Amino acid sequence: MWNSRLFVGLLPWIVFAIVTRAGGLGVRWGSLLSLVVAGVVTAIAIRRGRPTPVEFAAVAVFIVMLLLVLGNLGMPMRFARAISMTPLAALVLLSARRHPFTIGYTRDFVALRIAKTDFFHRVNVALSTIWGVVFAVIAVSHATGTLLSGPFGLSVFHWLVPLTSAMSGGWLTRRIWNECIDESGMSVASMVSSLAGTVKPTATPIVPVTRPFLRLLRGGRAQ
User: Fold this and answer.
1) Is residue 207 over pLDDT 50?
2) Would you list the domain boundaries of the chain?
3) How far is CA 62 from CA 9, 53, 94, 159, 201, in A?
4) Quick one: how far is CA 197 from the chain centroid?
């Protein structure tokens, strides 16, 4: 599934969060290890001919983080997690306006004819918006946890909220993808439906939280 590729693209930030945890190796090692992981992930993506902006952003973010740490530029390193997540959130949210970043992951899983449709673009606008919000929430949560400090701030805002946000984003992504795209990358019936700008009918009820996104995909028409 395409979302496994997205997970791989996010590995540098995951490594950074783990290494810079309380009792971990610190920001310097976190930045260095995350940069190494980002470089490997990007090299593999380039070799396969399928790099996305997320891989390049990871390399850029952790080069800057490492330089700031080594240069002792006075950056409030206590907020390193929040600082590292902020460019990712900004990139993903801005991408939804023109070229949703998720297209780099999803287009290989549908027919070329479908990948060129406005419907497919709207699906990816919704998915990119979801993940942009998730990353923004995680960035704010890390900053809040740093300000509060203590066991509560560490447990809730550095781990519980980010993990819950990521899981919610994954659930919403799966829900919307399954509502709109067949497991086979769209059946003939789904192709006709998507080209007409409508969402594929489903026998399962639509959970209320997904309705705004599905309404967006249908161009504002009611369920």
Assistant:
1) no
2) 2-217
3) 14, 14, 20, 21, 44
4) 25
